[in-house]
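Cross-check.
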Amino acid sequence: MSDIKITEYKVPVDEGELYVKKWNPTIVTSDVPIILLHDSLGCVGLWRGLPLMLAEKLSRTVIAYDRLGAGKSSVCESLPSIDFIEEEASQIFPLVKKSLSIKSYITLGHSVGGAMAINIAANDADCIGVISISAQAFVEPRTLKGIKDAKEAFKQKGQIERLQKWHSDKANWVLSAWTETWLLPEFSSWSLKSCIGNVTCPVLAIHGDNDEYGSTAFPEFIVNNTVGDSTLLIVKDCGHMPHKEKTDDVVMAIHHFINNSVI
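Predicted model, tokenized:
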């Protein structure tokens, strides 16, 4: 097992600062890092032990950051625009990349972070591989039902406190940024269709067969519409969190994908 050095950074953006954390093995097999993009309610801390596992298993640097308004990043005053996925890829992520002097890299995104990872790859040839976990590719009735159900569940006593543990006084904003944006009628036409044909690097699309926010039509759309080599992995008896529900299987699949399809 390699020793892992952990460092933390703050990256300035127009609206404040982004919190960034890096897991760097003492012995690395590649200088191409894996960059993690979290889900709508997520943050660096909610990746739990995955970054460390990946850094140890793959002997390469893993980087994660909190999006504006989430985790340890600055407060965001307004809710996201309906173009927030594309804006993260084209406006915010390049600032992280530049600040940390990142050259070639692999993106790994969960849920909406997976959609952002694909948009990043479509915009930047330096992205040489994408791993999407439970990524949305468009808006399904199942997506909307799952979000509405979650919105109601968070009205129950003690539920918003779960988010406050990770997002402190930003918790209500984080919840609203997810539910209110995705449930807007004008957001219902969002999809990856406009960008996915520009993704030329290898892609691994991982999806649970019981995902409550989207059917397997999402990963199928992803692998069928990227230009490069794409791999589909449907995880059996699994919901929206394959990396937490079936951690060993997911880490093994990522290890195989990177070593055999990327670098």
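The two ends are 21 Å apart (CA to CA). DSSP finds ten helices and eight strands in the chain. Passed to J.P. for a second look.
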